[in-house]
Structures are given as C-alpha cells and as structure tokens.
Amino acid sequence: MSKILSVDVGGTKILYSVLDEKGNFLTEIKRLSTPKNINELINIFKNIINSYEREIDAIAFATAGAVNLSNTRVESSTPNMPKGYNSLDFTTLTNKPVYIENDANAAAWAEYKTGAAKGENNTITITLGTGVGGGFIVDGRLLRGKSGRAGETGHIKINGRNRRCNCGGKNCFESYASGTGLKITAQETAQFDEIFQSSIYKNKLPDDITTYDIIEGVKQKDSYSIKVFNIWKHDIITGLICLTNIFDPESIIISGGMGEFLNYEEIEKAVNSENVVSPVKIKPARSGNYSGMIGAALLAYEKLLYNKK
Amino acid sequence: MSKILSVDVGGTKILYSVLDEKGNFLTEIKRLSTPKNINELINIFKNIINSYEREIDAIAFATAGAVNLSNTRVESSTPNMPKGYNSLDFTTLTNKPVYIENDANAAAWAEYKTGAAKGENNTITITLGTGVGGGFIVDGRLLRGKSGRAGETGHIKINGRNRRCNCGGKNCFESYASGTGLKITAQETAQFDEIFQSSIYKNKLPDDITTYDIIEGVKQKDSYSIKVFNIWKHDIITGLICLTNIFDPESIIISGGMGEFLNYEEIEKAVNSENVVSPVKIKPARSGNYSGMIGAALLAYEKLLYNKK
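ok -> structure tokens follow
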C-alpha cells in the first residue's frame, strides 16, 4: 500500500490527511485557516509535512490557481492567496516526491476515478459556488492546455445580457451561473421587472436581496423568486449545452454549494433536447468537500509512484 | 514510401488523389460531383478505388458528418449527403485498410502536421464558411468525445441576440460567425438601424443584401457595411475567447472562405486582451482546399500503416 499526504489549499482553509492509492483516508482529516502571509503559509506546509514525512511515499497538493505543466508551481495569479504564492516551488518543501494540481482539476479526477463519473473516460466536472470552475477529462487524461491553464469553464461566453465579469470580460458563464450570478440576476430582476411588486421581498431594496432569499423564495412559491431561479437555471443549461457540443462527454458532474439546488433530471433533459452531439448524463458530484484531496492523492500516486512499483 | 488514396467527400463534390506518408500529392487531384443517390455514390467510391487499388497501401476518407470511434462509418445525420450514407460501412468497399475521419477533424490534423500549426500540440482549427466547423488537437491527439461527435464548434453559445440556429437551438456561434451569419446580421441591421438610410445599399430590400455586398461595402468605406462587418468580427472574437479559455491552446487556425476577410493581427490582439489563460496565436490556415485529403491521408498512415513498418 502507498501512503500519500494530500493537502487541499484554498483561499480560506487548508485541509489535509493521508490517503492510500485508492483514495481511502488513512488518517483524520485536519483543517487550518489559510494565512495571509506567504512565509506563514510555507511554515504551515513544512509543519504538516514534518508530522507525516516518515510514514508517507509522496505529497500531493490540490490548490487554487493554475498549475504549471510540470506540476511543481502555481502559475497564474490567485488573488485569494498570499502574495508570493506563485513563486513557491513546492518541490523545495521536502525531499519526498511532490505533485501539485489545480483544485478543480483534482476534483474532476476524483469524480472520474472514484466518484460520480467512475469509468467514464470523457467527463467534465463543474463547480458551481461563489464562482464557477471546471476540470475536463478527455480520453482518460486531464485537459491541461499549453501552459496548464485550460479548463476555465467560468469564462466561456453564454447568450448573455451584457453582464461584466470579474475577469474584465463580458457575459462569462461564471457571472450568470455562480451563486453571485444568481444574486445579480435577482437584483436586476427586482429593478426592472414588475413581478417584484408582488414578491414576498417587495419591501427589500434590490441590492439587499441575496442568493439565499431566492432559494428560500422558491420554497415558498414566490413568483418573483421562481422567475429569477428559472433564469439562473436556463443560464446553467446554456453553458452545459455549449460544453456538451464541444466535448461530446459521457457525463457532466456538478459540484459546489449551488449544485444542490438543481433538479438533475430536468437539467439533463433540457441539455439533451438541444445538444447536437449525443445524450450526456448530468449528475451531482459524489466526492464532496474532500474531492480536492482525493483527486490530488490519486494523481500523485499515478504520476509519481505507480510506474515505480 | 507509403501510398494512400485519399478521398474528400463533401455535399457537393468529391476530391481524390494519392498521397505519401508526409502528405505530398503523388497523383493529379481529381474532382467529381457528389450524386444524390447512395448507390451511385457507392459506385463512384468503388470506381475510384478500382483505379488505384493495385498501387496503394491504404484508403483514407475525409467526410462530412460525425464519424464513429472505430473510424469506419458516418454516425450522425448529414442532410447534404444521400440517404443511406450513414449505413455505409466503408471497410466493405475494399480489401485494403480503410480509415475515415470527419472533414473538419482531418483539416485540423493537416494544419497540425504540415500546416499553420505544425508542431503545436494544442491547437484548434475553425472553418468559417457557409457554416462553422472545427477540429481540436489536445496534447497531440484529436478530440473525438464519447461517440466521435466532439468538436461541434458551430454550436457553442455566444453572447447572442436571440438568433435561431439551423440546429434548432439559439445563439449558436455558427448562426453569427458564418457567412450566412454575416448576411443575417446585415439584414437585421438594415431593418433596425438608421445607419442603413445613408448606405450605398439603401435602395435594396434588407432581405436582398448578401454577404458579398458587405465585403464589397467595407472596401468602399460604406458606414453601414463597416458596422455590420464589425459586429460579425466581434461575434467571431467572442467565440475564439470562449475556446481559448477552455483549451488554453497554442494557436487557433482559421480556414474556410470567410477567413480571408479577417485581419489576423487585430483578432489575435482582441482575443488576448480578454482571455484569462495565456496568449494564443490566431493564424490563417495553410493547407487550403486540400486539407481534408491531406489530414485523412496522414491519419490513415499513422493509424493503419506506421506501426506495421
């Protein structure tokens, strides 16, 4: 049995545990806050590694940001991470073999190897949360692109309404399909649609309406909330059709907090009624919040250890 | 030296010649009209094969329509082709090894192996003609998807204007970026924009304005034509940003008749000012009208002959 220390590094928290080559957790999952300072972060990494170094075969990191093609560094800017994070060469942290991967890619790998897309060689995992991310498996391999930055699902363009995205562009999928996107759609609809006058939220200022309000409003059968929710759902369907037509995948797996509000049967039917390739399955993710750790551990095993057995 | 008979089968014409394993033409390129009847088409194939069968090692077909994963049959409906085309097993035409590939995929392979994207392992070739097609090279391999239908570039969604596409969907890239798309944009602009009143085409009915009129109008500095052309260009740029953000490719190659009206430097600059991955090169195709034959021949060589040497 191989033992891989796997560390999931996000903008707010760090999760870590030791896993075997099948993605089973061998130790308790531990959690720390992500510090704002790069030296503190490096110290945390070193401390974590120190505690397990004697018993493990390799170290895996799932991290925010795009990872270089040799899987040793974060390449692209990651505004939520400490300054200097991009210049850290992860292989200098330890003498053990190290493998790092983007967290969305790691999550997609976890779904492909042990989760909802198990055995499906062409599959996409989309994360619908505060933002929108994605990882693509093409013929059983991770889509990385020329510089490791491929898979920016959040920044495909959809049939939009001239909405500005955080990336500086317009009409990006993320600006509509994320939780934040739902909120903006809610606020726009409150401002410009008469249906708001009969809503349970009519006494709120449009800018104060939240994602949660809409989810709650749908439960209470509020017409305004249902309208907003349906626009959001339609935006998601448009993005999924777009991805289906390019990749002809066996499945699209949805992870992230916003995914739990979707009716998968309905979404799958809508995507398949318009796609021009062949039917795709749309399924909820199964690996949960630990998919980054699982995927990174499985990738580290495959890339660093498997061939040496 | 290997000799591959390569046949490019389109909705209106059939092109064929014998090529070597480097994509060089060894015989005159011949051309026939595509018949409307499947039996006539099969007879044409058999006659072509008969004329060369003794001297060749394999037969390649580049064809309209999606091709199955074993590269023996056309899978998806191809309205321009004779009825029954989808049930033809190409391997029954001859005792020689046969390899068939979608024409856009073959064209992308030709650009990758011998054309504008030579040596670039992550590259996309887009055809801008009456419609929009595409072929994707990911880490040196053709993107095929679960059923061979991947790469339906024409049916990604862009930030559209609620335009209906031939596929039944809305706001597909093809409905804006194709030659037909340019014409529809011209007609819509003529109907709804005052700028048309001062155009050199003001005495035409909007429905009579053609793609050619706009290209000609731009040359004559007609403001209406320039406006229409710029909308079309912006639609193309939007689609290219979308593809760049998913694939992080080294290059996007543009082929097809409409490609010659683009300023590549300008398009590349616009795409790179908005993409969130890393800079991509946008270049005109180099393999021309014979890219289908070249790409199919190179693929047939690689898949059928190379390993047997």
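Residues 175 and 181 of chain B are 5 Å apart (CA to CA).
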